[in-house]
Specification:
The protein is mostly beta strands and 354 residues long. The chain has 4 helices and 24 strands. The strands form 6 sheets. The protein has a 4-stranded antiparallel sheet, with no helix packed on it. It has a 4-stranded antiparallel sheet with strand order 4-5-6-7, with no helix packed on it. The chain has a 4-stranded antiparallel sheet with strand order 8-9-10-11, with no helix packed on it. A hairpin with a 4-residue loop joins strand 22 (321-327) and strand 23 (332-336). The longest helix is centred in the first third of the chain and has 9 residues, at 10-18. This is F-box domain-containing protein. Residues 8-48 form the F-box domain. Pfam families: F-box, Kelch_KLHDC2_KLHL20_DRC7.
Length: 354
C-alpha cells in the first residue's frame, strides 16, 4: 500500500488532509484513490470535528436577485438557487444547480443536512408547477449531485422535514394534489437510499414545521383539511427509540400562529419569531428575549447551530434581505454582511457541520 503522502507517516498525512478547507474537498479527493477514500471515510470527518476543524455551513434556498419580482406574494415566480453562508468567516457562495432544473432548484422544496451531504426533497417544477417527488443529494466531498429514490406515495407539498444530522431525513404531513391535508410520515435513509414508512400522526398537519431534537422528530402546528389555514397550536413527536408518536404536552404555539420560524436553539429550547421579537419557550409560555432588528422583521427565516441563531429577513415587502446572528447567553445581535448577490428572497434553510 502506498503512503498517503510520500516520505510522511500516514498519521501525519492524515493530520495534513484533515486541515484542508471543505471548499477544496472536491479537488483533493480527485488527486488519487487513497486521498478520495480518506476524505470519504467516517473517521476523517470525526477527526475534523474532534479537532475543532469542522465548520458550520448554512444553506439557504434563495431567489436569484436579478430575477426577483420584489413581493413576497410573487415568490413562486422567482428563480431559486442554493446559497451558502459560512458564519465563522462571513463568506458566501452557492452550489451548482440541481440536475434537470435550469432555474436552480424546485420551488418550495425542503432541504436537510445529513453529515457531509445536503438532501433536497420535493417542491414544484418552476416551469410546469407540477409537484415533484424527486430527491437530490449533494456530496461536499465529491462536489456533485446524485439522484435519490423518489418519495413514495402520493405527491405532497408543504410538508414537515428534518434530519437527525447523521443519516436520516424525516418527512410528515403537508397536502396532496387535491389539497387534502396529510397525517402520513416516512423517513429516508441517505446512505442506503431507502424510504421507510412511519406510523401516521394523530392529526392531519398541512404547512407544519419539522424539527429533530434528542432522538425525536417534532412536527409543530399545521392545520387539517377542514381548517384550511387556521393553524393548530399543538405538536406531536415521533420517538425513534420506541417507533411511536406522542403528543407534546400543552399548546406549543399561540392560536393561529404559523410555525415556520420554530427552531431548537441552545440548551434544547424552542425559539421562534413572534410579534417582532425572538421568543423562547419554557414549555408553558413564550418569553421575548430580544427585539428583532428593524431590517429583518418581515418574512424572517431562522437557522440554528451550536446554540446560535441566524435570522434572515427584510425591512419591508420587496426589500433586500439582511441577516443577524443572535448569540447566547446574553441574546445580543451581530450583523452579518450580505452582498447584493445574496440579498434575494429566502424560502428555507438548514445547517451542516463539515
Amino acid at each position: 500500500m502506498m503512503d498517503l503522502i510520500p516520505c510522511l507517516p500516514d498519521e501525519i498525512a492524515r493530520e495534513c488532509l484533515t486541515r484542508v478547507p471543505y471548499t477544496h474537498f472536491c479537488t483533493v479527493s480527485a488527486v488519487c484513490k487513497g486521498w478520495k477514500e480518506e476524505l470519504e471515510s467516517v473517521q476523517f470527518h470525526q477527526r475534523r470535528k474532534s479537532g475543532g476543524l469542522s465548520r458550520p455551513i448554512v444553506v439557504l434556498t434563495q431567489a436569484e436577485p436579478d430575477r426577483a419580482l420584489g413581493a413576497v406574494k410573487c415568490a413562486a415566480a422567482h428563480a431559486y438557487r442554493l446559497a451558502l453562508l459560512e458564519p465563522a468567516t462571513g463568506a458566501w457562495g452557492k452550489l451548482p444547480p440541481v440536475p434537470g432544473f435550469s432555474g436552480g432548484l424546485p420551488l418550495f422544496c425542503q432541504c436537510a443536512g445529513v453529515g457531509r451531504k445536503l438532501v433536497v426533497i420535493g417542491g414544484w417544477n418552476p416551469t410546469t408547477w407540477e409537484v415533484s417527488k424527486a430527491v437530490f443529494v449533494f456530496d461536499f466531498v465529491s462536489g456533485g449531485w446524485r439522484r435519490g429514490g423518489d418519495m413514495p406515495g402520493a405527491s405532497r407539498s408543504f410538508f414537515a422535514c428534518a434530519s437527525d444530522s447523521d443519516r436520516m431525513v424525516f418527512v410528515a404531513g403537508g397536502h396532496d394534489e387535491e389539497k387534502n391535508a396529510l397525517k402520513s410520515a416516512m423517513l429516508y435513509d441517505v446512505a442506503k437510499d431507502e424510504w421507510t414508512p412511519l406510523p401516521d400522526m394523530d392529526r392531519q398537519r398541512d404547512e407544519c414545521k419539522g424539527i429533530f431534537h434528542a432522538g425525536r422528530f417534532l412536527v409543530i402546528g399545521g392545520y387539517s383539511t377542514e381548517m384550511q389555514g387556521r393553524f393548530e397550536r399543538s405538536a406531536e413527536a415521533f420517538d425513534v427509540a420506541t417507533w411511536q408518536w406522542g403528543q407534546v404536552e400543552g399548546d406549543v404555539l399561540d392560536i393561529g400562529s404559523c410555525p415556520g420560524t420554530c427552531v431548537v436553539g441552545g440548551e434544547g429550547k424552542l425559539y421562534r419569531c413572534r410579534a417582532g421579537h425572538m421568543a423562547v419557550s419554557d414549555g408553558v409560555t413564550w418569553r421575548s428575549v430580544a427585539e428583532l432588528p428593524a431590517d429583518i422583521r418581515v418574512s424572517p427565516n431562522v437557522v440554528t447551530w451550536q446554540g446560535k441563531l441566524l435570522v434572515i429577513g427584510m425591512a419591508k415587502c420587496g426589500g433586500p434581505y439582511g441577516a443577524y446572528v443572535l448569540e447566547s447567553p446574553h441574546y445580543t445581535w451581530r450583523k452579518v454582511r450580505v452582498p447584493e448577490e445574496y440579498s434575494g428572497h429566502v424560502q428555507a434553510g438548514c445547517c451542516l457541520e463539515i
